[in-house]
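Protein details
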Amino acid sequence: MATRPKATRPKATRPKATRPKATRPKATRPPKAARPKTAWTRKGAFPGAAAAPPNEAAAGERVQKLLSAAGIGSRREVERWIRESRLKVNGEVPALGAKLTARDRITLDGRPVRLHTPDVKQSRVLLFHRSPGENLDLKAATSRAAELLNLPRSSGRWLAIQPMPPVDGGLEILTDDGSWAHRVSRGVHALTVDYVLRMRGPLNEALVDEFRAATDCEGEAMSILQADAKYGEGFNHWLNVTVRATRSAQVRHWFAARGIIVSRLMRVRVGPVHLAHDLPRGHSRAMLASERNALINEIDAAKPPLPTPEAV
């Protein structure tokens, strides 16, 4: 029998009920004040403060201070270079105390001067035992120290703080930090210094007492704090001297005027820094951080106090 196909009824679809979504009014913020356009700043800097690119001189630094801090030369040397028209900024001789910007081009004798960022540069200080009668060769002394102490070579210029005359010897302080050298040089005259003298001639206790009481030599002021003699059997005698603001040449001249020849003069102490017995002649060692701090603290303590408002 033939089968009839089943009739299918279309299903009725009910429209889905849609609920209207509630719209919340958006909070409106007050308009921001217009910010002036400024130069690019690095992260963490003050708002609106332009950050200088690396390895560039800081704006507003005096030319003497900047070159001294970079180890190019002392401030007096920089002033002399300016007077001799050897130092130029952007092709022109600057005025003494002129301030530099980050884009200024500095040349010395026609050669460009590259400045190192002070934050990156690591300053070094050496204690050098110089033999009396030998000239102070900074290049040879620092090169030998770099080899013996395994120190990296410094790209800056080395400076000697209050170097002794060529005829004398002993403790020499060397550094490649111009700012530190300037700070110590300005205050080292207020520190006490120890000299050891080998003398030849009729030295006696009366002459030593006269030397202790001496206040000047050929019109130049001198201050003798202590003098202890060790008399030898022959003509050679030894004298340990502690002075302040007194050059070794003054000590030599004072005794020479009285018939005493100083055949050797050695500086063995500058403030809290001593010349160790285990440091041979011609050798050097790195100055300890504790010694540097002690030297700076003693210099600061020797400065005269500032006048109080009541005194003014």
